[in-house]
Amino acid sequence: EEKMVKICCIGAGYVGGPTMAVIALKCPSIEVAVVDISVARIAAWNSDELPIYEPGLDDVVKQCRGKNLFFSTEVEKHVSEADIIFVSVNTPTKTRGLGAGKAADLTYWESAARMIADVSKNDKIVVEKSTVPVKTAEAIEKILTHNCKGINFQILSNPEFLAEGTAIQDLFHPDRVLIGGRDTPEGQKAIQTLKKVYAHWVPEDRIICTNLWSAELSKLAANAFLAQRISSVNAMSALCEATGADVTQVSNAVGKDSRIGPKFLNASVGFGGSCFQKDILNLVYICECNGLPEVANYWKQVIKVNDYQKSRFVNRMVSSMFNTVSGKKIAILGFAFKKDTGDTRETPAIDVCKGLLGDNAHLSIYDPQVTQEQIQRDLSMEKFVWDHPTHLQPVIPYGLKQVNVVSGAHEATKDAHGLCILTEWDEFKTLDFKRIYDNMQKPAFVFDGRNVVDASKLREIGFIVYTIGKPLDAWLKDMPAVA
Ligand code: NAI
């Protein structure tokens, strides 16, 4: 019988929390400690109100917390006791210095690595769980081995493919688990150790083992491909509006081709979330550093189309409402970057709202999972100036009194001139649109950024409806949006 494995995960965020909770649930013989420097985050993980909203997460945490799953701020203690250390700290885009606006900021990673080197007293496997630039393991290895006092560190890359909103299901039934390691006997042994952890619940043929660089790059590649699909269908949505084609019909027809597949082909106001943009910018930067400007430009275009889609949406709104939204109340339904999460990082709602505020609109915002504080914070922050041209209005300082966060769709839409759906929450499909219409200013507009409403029913009620990528109402045709 082998000795009990102890796991420590540095970073109790959207990735560290759910992944470790599932490992603890599926591996009762393994003790899992999730540590973080944020006292508030750890306190929340130890309370009844977890710091993130994710369907099914509460249940998993409740089953293991205090048994073989622990959340703690005693970072050094748990790191020194662990055999396997996952590092799941944030890796945002650098905001200043070399590679600003593109390169990954590895400050948090480096400080975690130095701390691991400082406190370790026995051999460790260090696992990159965060999404990192390809070749990061080499840098981490250098930090660890230069400070190691004869301890053997093995670095593995084990990127996480979960999607927010379905994280627990994704972790229970992953399409694949990817483990990259060194080609040496020690490297292969470390791969096997980690593989054994996942083998508690993941079928063997779904655990892919590769070299370090393939594993690191595969995560960036997967996110780039996913985002590219969205930008592709969004680019088509603009052409659909111009020609009278219907993007839902086009997606359906295209997706029937088994080489393409039906998933992830929904047109929308644009992708968001903490990862797609950051990881593509990171990929672009790596291409440029490796003397591959053509490849860099190819991927850059995915972000440009996403920016174009957001600004196109705002322009369509403003132009159809007589070219001004100044002083008008606009209801914003949905603020999270997708349904079933409270996460607002890089949500297209931020850009759309800022665009409308730039034209002096009054916003009444409702999201079932995002707090008022979060929305106010997101909208008062300066938009980070990327090095790619943004088509959006520059942010003019405005009073946040123009932004009202409310607790229901009816309150948000009362006396509004337009309503705008920015997250595909299920509850928006079954709203009482007749009642909403009766309480709005006329003409009443609906701008559906997620294809959730039944446009023909809404038109029957009397709304003027814009749905991305669908044939335009006569009204909208008469008020062409200037791109
Ligand atoms: P997050 O920001 O929610 O969590 C990161 C946590 O690390 C924070 O709580 C922070 O306080 C903590 N931290 C930072 N430095 C630390 C240190 N030195 N010691 C202890 N704790 C420290 O980030 P999230 O969303 O969990 O992402 C983490 C990584 O996983 C990123 O690289 C991201 O790209 C990647 N990823 C994210 C996915 C997502 O859906 N959010 C999916 C797959 C990968």
Automatic annotation (TrEMBL):
Source organism, top-level taxon: Eukaryota
UniProt-listed InterPro entries: 6-PGluconate_DH-like_C_sf, NAD(P)-bd_dom_sf, UDP-Glc/GDP-Man, UDP-Glc/GDP-Man_DH_C, UDP-Glc/GDP-Man_DH_C_sf, UDP-Glc/GDP-Man_DH_dimer, UDP-Glc/GDP-Man_DH_N, UDPglc_DH_euk
Documented EC number(s): 1.1.1.22
Gene3D superfamilies: Cytochrome c1, transmembrane anchor, C-terminal, NAD(P)-binding Rossmann-like Domain
Binding-site residues for NAD(+), renumbered to this chain: 11-16, 36, 41, 89-93, 130-131, 164, 275-278, 345
Pathway assigned to this chain's UniProt record: Nucleotide-sugar biosynthesis; UDP-alpha-D-glucuronate biosynthesis; UDP-alpha-D-glucuronate from UDP-alpha-D-glucose: step 1/1
Keyword field: NAD, Oxidoreductase
Catalytic reaction list: UDP-alpha-D-glucose + 2 NAD(+) + H2O = UDP-alpha-D-glucuronate + 2 NADH + 3 H(+)
GO cellular component: nucleus
Enzyme active site: 275
Record domain UDP-glucose/GDP-mannose dehydrogenase C-terminal: where: 331-455
GO terms assigned for molecular function: NAD binding; UDP-glucose 6-dehydrogenase activity
GO BP of this protein: glycosaminoglycan biosynthetic process; UDP-glucuronate biosynthetic process
Cross-referenced NCBIfam families: NDP-sugDHase
Sequence similarity: Belongs to the UDP-glucose/GDP-mannose dehydrogenase family.
Record's protein name: UDP-glucose 6-dehydrogenase
Lineage of producing organism: Eukaryota, Viridiplantae, Streptophyta, Embryophyta, Tracheophyta
Recorded name of the encoding gene: LOC101261402
